[in-house]
Design brief:
Blueprint: E1 4-7, H1 15-23, E2 41-47, E3 50-56, H2 68-73, H3 88-99, H4 103-120, H5 127-135, H6 152-165
Parallel strand pairs: 1-3
Antiparallel strand pairs: 2-3
Helix pairs in contact: 3-4, 4-6, 5-6
């Protein structure tokens, strides 16, 4: 497996420009306006005879559960996390491993958690997290208006992600 290098940092500090330079082509839009890069872009890169995958991020913002490790690497002291409602031990372990110097272990757990994070953010919260907790037998009840039940396709993806992650 090739190494994955993520370019992380605050919004609008030149991450996309660096991404384009490293991958040798203009794949990412470079603009002086903050918030232009919204989706992560991936490319293969070669630098000093080493091949790796590189990802351009849209900037690290608190509240992105799939970016716990980068937030900690930028000096964060912990996280407030939606995912921690359904995977509290694992969310804690990402932070604890990082602070204990086990960055590789923290990274492995973060990467393993990403499909669950994506499923938990597939609809407006708290819709997915309440669905997840109910699937876990926590019986947190139904949603109040104006919120509606999860779309069936998203609910199926959430359940599958929870099973794959080992919390269901």
């Amino acid at each position: 497996m090739k190494p994955l290098v993520a370019i992380v940092g605050r919004p609008n500090v030149g991450k996309s420009m660096l991404f384009n330079k490293l991958c040798g082509q203009r794949l990412s839009i470079v603009e002086d306006t903050p918030g232009v890069t919204r989706d992560r872009l991936y490319a293969q890169c070669e630098w000093r005879s080493r091949t790796f995958d590189i990802v351009d991020t849209g900037g690290i913002e608190p509240g992105n559960d799939d970016q716990i490790l980068p937030l900690l690497a930028l000096g964060g002291k912990g996280v407030i996390s939606v995912t921690s409602n359904v995977a509290p031990r694992q969310t804690h372990d990402i932070c604890a491993k990082f602070f204990a110097g086990d960055v590789a272990g923290s990274c492995a757990e973060q990467l393993r958690m990403i499909p669950l994070c994506n499923a938990l953010f597939s609809e407006v919260n708290p819709i997915p997290v309440k669905k997840a907790l109910n699937l876990m037998g926590k019986e947190v009840g139904s949603l109040r208006s104006p919120l509606t039940d999860m779309e069936e396709a998203n609910a199926a993806k959430l359940e599958a992600a929870m099973k794959e992650y080992g919390i269901l």
